[in-house]
What does this fold into?
Amino acid sequence: MYLDDDLDPIARAVQRVLEGYLAFFYDAWVNQNINAISGDYVEFGSWGANTMNMSYQAMVLSGRADRHLWAYDSFQPLPEATDERDYHPGWNPGGPMGGGGVEKFHEACARHGIPREAYTATEGYFDTTLPPLGTDGDPTDIAVCLIDCNMYSSAVTVFDFLESRLKHGMILAFDDYFCWSPERISGEQSVMLEFARDHPQWHFERYRDFHRAGTSFVVQHADQIPR
Ligand SMILES: C[S@@+](CC[C@H](N)C(=O)[O-])C[C@H]1O[C@@H](n2cnc3c(N)ncnc32)[C@H](O)[C@@H]1O
It folds into this structure.
């Protein structure tokens, strides 16, 4: 097969990445509908509203516009490192990724046609905005969750929040699962593997990859897995 010379190769590559996200979100939402998995979409790391937009469009395409969207982000640069596993050649803790405040996020959502009442955006660093481990509070029922916060320590806070909200059938996706470095594995991957080691009641079944670094899992009760 020959590539179309008329297409700019960079544009083609970017297009392929976006199509990968959309295909992932569409399949995830259709599967949650077919499999009768209730719940909302929750995202940790939402800043530019790109993944929020793709998940929303796919969710509507799947025939369900009634699931609420929850966006958590500082809407500021990445936090300072608190663990050596926060460092990565691709980003700097405390560095410029993110920023602009939540108003820019609202503007991007409006441009994408996401109704204001369809989502809740919570601004601030996770260690101050996420209810502590074991505390009740929205969102309580999660069907699809995307973790896109890059740093190890951020993902630890997210898992503390998710622990009491995990449920059989939830799809848990990571944007930076395959972001390793010469020294260590990905921070998001480390946190998930540590959590799985310490919580054997949960099984994480590999579901779909969606770009060079992103992948997803179906959360399952471990006692459902034949051994
Ligand atoms: C890669 S960006 C998210 C991009 C977004 N998914 C999109 O599609 O536009 C990562 C975001 O996670 C945020 N983040 C990382 N750690 C955080 C923490 N501990 N608390 C709040 N936000 C955090 C960063 O500030 C940054 O805005």
The domain at 9-224 is CATH 3.40.50.150 (Rossmann fold). The chain has one domain: 9-224. Residues 45 and 73 are 5 Å apart (CA to CA).
